[in-house]
Write a structure and sequence with these properties.
- The strands form 2 sheets. The chain has a two-stranded antiparallel ribbon with strand order 1-4. A two-stranded antiparallel ribbon has the order 2-3.
- It is about 60% helix and about 5% strand.
- The protein is globular and about 40 Å long.
- The chain is built from 8 helices and 4 strands; from the N terminus they run H-H-H-E-H-E-H-E-H-H-E-H.
- The protein has a single domain, classed as Orthogonal Bundle (Recoverin, domain 1), CATH 1.10.238.
- It is mainly alpha-helical and about 140 residues long.
- Helix 1 crosses helix 4 and helix 1 packs antiparallel against helix 5.
């Protein structure tokens, strides 16, 4: 089974590109980033932890602190090497089509990756559900 291409994955791509040149060359691993959302290290990612991690990622991406992620926030090297990919990811999340990604569009937008991983719909992705996601990802490769 293939993992769906989601807005959440696009958001992860944007986040990886803003992390720096090395991260821009590597493809983001949505499962790794999902697991890193486990703020308290208990092996379970709650929806609240997932959203908090998205908020933190947005704060790092919004380099000029204007509440939006746009081309102005891209480091020159990222713009040169991966600007088109980043712009496509921003476009995928830009609900109002204004060419920028607002905090609300990124942080409060659909949580499709989380929803896909939360197989039993209890609002938590536990180790078993994360392992299922990983298995599905390996099966598609």
């Amino acid at each position: 089974m293939r993992l769906p291409v989601t807005l959440a994955f696009a958001a992860l791509a944007v986040g990886a590109a803003f992390a720096g040149p090395a991260a821009a060359r590597d493809r983001p691993d949505p499962l790794e980033m999902l697991a890193k959302s486990d703020a308290n290290g208990d092996g379970r990612v709650t929806r609240a932890e997932f959203i908090a991690a998205r908020r933190d990622r947005f704060e790092r991406m919004d380099r000029n602190d204007d509440g939006y992620v746009s081309d102005d926030d891209l480091p020159r090297l990222v713009r040169k090497r991966g600007g088109d990919k980043v712009n496509r990811a921003i476009d995928a999340l830009d609900a109002n089509r204004d060419g920028r990604l607002s905090r609300a569009e990124f942080v409060d937008g659909p949580t499709r990756l989380f929803d896909f991983g939360d197989a039993n719909r209890d609002g938590v992705i536990d180790r078993a559900e994360l392992a299922q996601l990983s298995d599905r990802g390996r099966a598609r490769d």
